[in-house]
Every structure is written in C-alpha cells, then in structure tokens.
Amino acid sequence: MSVLVFIEQREGQIRSVSKEALGEGTRLAEKLGGEVVGVCPAASDPGLASLGDAGADRVLLAAHERFGLYDAAGYTRAVCQAAETVKPDVVLFAASAMGKDLAPRVAARLGMGLATDCTALDVEAGRLIATRPVYAGKAIQRVGFRGTPALVSLRPKVFAAVAGAGRRGTVERLPVSDEGSPSGARVRRVVAASSGKVDLTESEIIVSGGRGLRGPENFKIIEELAEALGATVGASRAVVDAGWRPHSDQVGQTGKTVSPKLYVAVGISGAIQHLAGMSSSRCIVAINKDPDAPIFKVADYGLVGDLFEVVPALTEAVRKLNAQHV
Amino acid sequence: MIQAVCIKQVADTETRVKVAADGKALDPAGVTWILNPYDEFALEQALRVREKLGAGEVVVASLGGAGVAATLRNALAMGADRALHLRADAPPPDSLAVARALAAELRPLSPDLVWCGRQAVDGDAAQVGPMLGELLEMPCVTAVAGFELEGRTAVVERDIEGGREVVEVQLPAVITTDKGLNEPRYASLKGIMAAKKKPIEERPAQLGEPSLEVISLALPPPRSPGRVVGQGVEGVQELIRVLRQEAKIL
Prior knowledge:
Chain B: Keywords: Electron transport, Transport. The complex is a heterodimer. By secondary structure, chain A is α/β, with parallel strands linked by helices.
C-alpha cells in the first residue's frame, strides 16, 4: 500500500504539519508494506531531500512559477497528476487552511471519498478506517472508504512527525500540465499577523480568556501569561461576539477546535460550545472565581480565585521558572 | 446576477449529543434544528450583494428530509427569493454525494456566485463548497472573512495560519464563508409574512453511490476527573508544581 502525502510549503519553507502527515504515512506504509511519496507544488525546491528523514521514499516536485503562493487550481492539478503516477492507496493532507481548501477539490476531481480533520487512522481487514471528531468534538465518528485511493486530512498537532527515518527522499520532477487558462482565483498577497503569531490550531500551549476578564483592555494579563508560557491567546465566543477579540481567536463550535498540550482557560465558565472545541487538549487548567463553573468538570487542574490576582502571580511564577532554565 | 446559497439544517450548537440506537448517527430526539451558523454568513452576504446591485435573484438550496423545509422558509424570511429542496430522507454520509446532487441542480441556474458556509457544525467536513467549485468548474475560495465585489471580480480575505490571504477571484465563483464576514440579519415580521408566499420547489436529490460509510458514532471518552489544586494566589505554586511534576509540561 503506497501513500501519497501532500507537502505544504509557504515562502519556501516546508510546513511542520506536512512532516506530521509524512510521519503517519510512514506508519501506514510500514503496516502494509509500500512506499511513501510526497508531492510538493512550489516555485522552486524548498529542500525536499531533507524529507527522507521525515519518512519520504520519494518526493515529487511540481515546480511552476505560479506555485510560490497557493494556487488552488494548479495545486489540484499537480496532486491529481501525482495520484495518477503513483497510484496510491491513501492520499494524506494536513487539515491546515491550505489542506482544507485543496483536499476536497482533489477528492471531487478523482471522484473519491475524503475524511477531513482526522485524529486517528487504522487498517482493519486491509481497509483504511478514519476516526474524526464531529459536532466539534462532542462525538467521534469512524468512517470507512469505498474504493481507492482513500483521501484523508489530518488534524494538526495530533500525529507525530518522525525524525531520522533514513528513507531515501529522492527528489523527482513532476511535470505539471499547464492548461493554459490561469486559475480563476489568485492569491494577491499574504498579510502576516502581528509578530508571527502561531495559529491556535498549531499551538502547543493556549491561554484563553472569557467574560471574566470584564473588558478587552484586561486581555493584557492574558497576553502576558501567554508570552511567558510561549502560548497563543484564544477566546470564548462571548468575548468574540462582544467584539473584544478577533474571530480568529475563538475556540469552540463556531470557532476553532484545538488540541494543545496545555490549555489554560481564564474567566471562562465553560459553555458546551466552548468545551466541545477544547476538551481534547492534553492538559486543561481552569482559573475561575466560581467553583461551580462547568469548566472545572473538564479541567485537570483547577484554581479557584480572582483571576486579576491569580493570573499575574502565575505569570510571575512562570517567568521565574523560565529564568532558572536559561 | 443569480446567486445560489447552499444551506444545511443542523442540530443547535447547544445540543448535548446522544447516539441513536443504530450506533451511527445522532439521536434526533429532543434536538432543536437551526440553520447552520456559517450558512447564515453566506446568506447574509448574498443578500447584501443583491441589495447593493439593486437587482438579481438569491436562490437557497438545501438537501435533506421533510424538516428542512422549515429552515428554507426561514432563509426566505431573511430575504432569499426562492428555494430548492433536494429531498433526501436519509442524507448520504459523504460530502461528495451531496456536492454532486447540489451541482446537478445548480448547474442549470448558471449562478454567478455560489455561497456555502465554511462547514456545517454537525459533520464538520468543510468539503461541499470546494467540491462544488470543482464540479461546477468554478474557482472557489474557502473560509472567507472579507468580501468586496468590483464588477466581475471579487477581492476576498481568508485567515490562514499566522496571517491572512487576500485573494482575487473571477466570477462565476464559489465562496465559503467564515465567522467575521458580516452580522447576519434576523428575519423581520414583514419578511416572515412575505416568505409564506415565496416558492419552495421540492424534488428528489440525485444521489449516486456514497464514497464513504459511517461505521460508528460514539461519545468521546470522558476525561478523568481533575481536581482543584488551590484557592487564589496561594494556589499558584501548587499549580506550577503539578504542571511540572505530574503533567510534565512546564
């Protein structure tokens, strides 16, 4: 069973989510005996030979001057051409902004089923079974595929990348047919968020604030704790709807579903929509003055108290710890 | 300008999920059904485009069982002109089958813009929009949180990891909408009255073979019970200790 993995690059950098996908591809290929092949649309080689250590036997470079920025139509063509060449049993994508956009297009063109944002893959009786959270994590669905290739996108930060796999990582050119017509959609530019902020879905640590903060100006103490922890700031729906924080910060059912190593919920009571979006975090800390808040039911560690006293003290303690480590 | 808005009826986000007896689907007992929140942004934006141009038609389309008519009626009350109900009493488990059924109905309309929510908050698949783009041979931009139309060109913005992409797209196009694009309106009393006279055309969804099958639906394993490690500032040192020594995070 060979596995084709879409390799995502941005500004000539291979993204870590693609290494996670290669890691899972390697595990699948080991179970079934087959090769792991990457396909990377790019303007020029972003250093694909290095992916041998991440598990790739071969990497197909689909080079085109337009492929520096994401080009939905061109990337779709490249991945479909790679699928025709490699004839894989499984095609893996990261469920990143790019992967979420691309994978359904590829699925529709190949006429094959796609399971998105999966958190586990198994092979049962020679058939791939995908596990995926639905209802923002309130339930877990297992789906089976009819026909091959099976298309899967993988939730970031769930699958481990491998290092030192020692596979060949041979880079081959994949000629991309240019159908003449430029894509109807063209990325004009990418506006970077302030200070290279890590996206919530890819963060190891998240510190989220809720209505307990009482006003947008008080998010400063959340930001300071986040900075000390090396974390990304998240928010509850209530504060996003109140306009205190941008929509991209929202964690929960109409925001982002996250699974960080550590999730710190500050002044968040724990509405069901919020709990759905973060309860797959590895460790949850809740800080709230109401000991009966539902957030304490999912928290591993709770601290009952006034967040305006507790959070600065916690920030100070983390800073001291950081200073010791240096 | 003809705009099509694909909408879905979903369980309210307040729903506590219970699994049906077949072990594969949501138990519908006691569930409140709503218009998928991301689809509200899609419909709102289509209405704004029509209002700005002062002309055109907004057609809402939905695939599902008899109950879907209520959601379509609600969309008509918000301001859509007419509705297509693709009747499927047992909707397929895969987005590809849904997208194909929708594409078959939308193609004859020759829409200039096809709108979908970024994803439906039940299956969270986020597939139908981009699949429609492919099937209708239109460009598609997903998870759009900013939209400006200049003639036959739309300039849209979408959040990506660590930033925002500004994308220029030529009509006809498929756009899927994210939270932050707009503030959806509520249906007015006048709108609700007018909706009663607007047509809902019902026909069977053209469903082919599904490409996926659901094996099981289950509740996630419960988290092992946690504990309160302290009260107020005095609890901070203990919190630091457990995060280091038990959770081994810090």
